[in-house]
Amino acid sequence: MHFAYPPRKTSNPPPFLPRQSKLPGLLARRSRLKVIALAGLAFIAVIYILARLSGRHGGAAHHKPSGRPPVVLVTVLDEKKYSKAYIDMVKDNRIQYAEKHGYKTFFAKASDYELKGAPTSWASVVATRHALTLFPDCYFVWYLDQNSFVMNPLLRIEDHVMKASRLEALMIKDQPVVPPDSIIKTFSHLKGQDVDFVLTQDKEGLSTGSFVLRNGEWAKYLLETWFDPIYRSYNFQKAETHALEHIVQWHPTILARLALVDQHIINSYSKDSAGAEYKDGDIAVRFAGCTPGGAHPCEAESQRFAQQWRSNFKNA
């Protein structure tokens, strides 16, 4: 029996077929990556341009006050509780002082703002915020309540209170925010140039009837935080004053810009205040503790100083 022989291998193998080149695919991938990179750069460029345009023309967040006017003097008036004669005298006092220094006045009515049942004293906060909107170029706002008079027309807020070197000398550092034993104290390392909010305290705590605020984004943040509905709806015994005490003690970002000064600097009392009673030369006097009527009416208390402030202004 014979078996078939396996087929004989040819001595002429088929031609070698080269492996297909990867170059076209590589080029295609590189091309796609290039397109993606260019698209990414274009997107970043668009965002950058829009941001620049927003910063240049959107303006509000980067607005730098020109100082025209340097100061706005804000007072909230309650025409329902006080006589027209008293209201007119308070206005005249503010206007004469403002005109002497090139300041502006802003008189708001307590009824101008929707407080949703909160005490009318809250109007001081929103009125100050309103003033910043009306006078975006002012350097400072001085809020002074209606139960007070400016007494020294020679003193300017910029120099008497807000000048950095002056603040360095005036600031009460490492002081309990709510006397006598609050564990939260004013910063001991705060510099005058970093202060945006100046107010005083009496024996009971912070006193919000007279305060000075530097215009800027931080001021808006403070006022909007202070006026938050949460605080307005809470039944604080002293409304906006106790709300501020709470905020200052729980928000280091606010305490870090706050300076307490002696009451004689911006907030002397007419009486019943050991160490803080008005004396000649003080910039203002407040009739602290007075009421529209009753045993200690504000209008009666004001008469002790009405002639004096007019005389001081006339002789200045």
Biggest β-sheet, characterized?
6 strands, mixed
Q: Using the coordinates shown, work out and report the CATH topology of the domain at 71-262.
A: Spore Coat Polysaccharide Biosynthesis Protein SpsA, Chain A
Beta-strand level of the residues, as a percent range?
A: 5-15%
CATH class of the domain at 71-262: Alpha Beta
Overall mean pLDDT stands at: 86
Sequence stretches where pLDDT stays below 50 over 5 or more residues: 1-6, 45-60
User: What is the strand arrangement across the widest sheet?
Assistant: 2-1-3-6-5-7
Report the helical percentage: 40-55%
CA(first)-CA(last) distance: 145 Å
Q: What is the number of helices?
A: 11
CATH architecture of the domain at 71-262: Alpha-Beta Complex
CATH-level-4 superfamily name of the domain at 71-262: Spore Coat Polysaccharide Biosynthesis Protein SpsA, Chain A
Structural class: alpha/beta
Indicate the overall shape.
globular
Gyration radius (Cα, Å) is 34 Å
Beta-strand segment tally: 9
List the helices and strands in order. Answer: HEHEHEEHHEEHHHHEHEEH
InterPro entries: Glyco_trans_34, Nucleotide-diphossugar_trans
Protein name: Galactosyl transferase GMA12/MNN10 family-domain-containing protein
GO molecular function: alpha-1,6-mannosyltransferase activity
Pfam families: Glyco_transf_34 (PF05637)
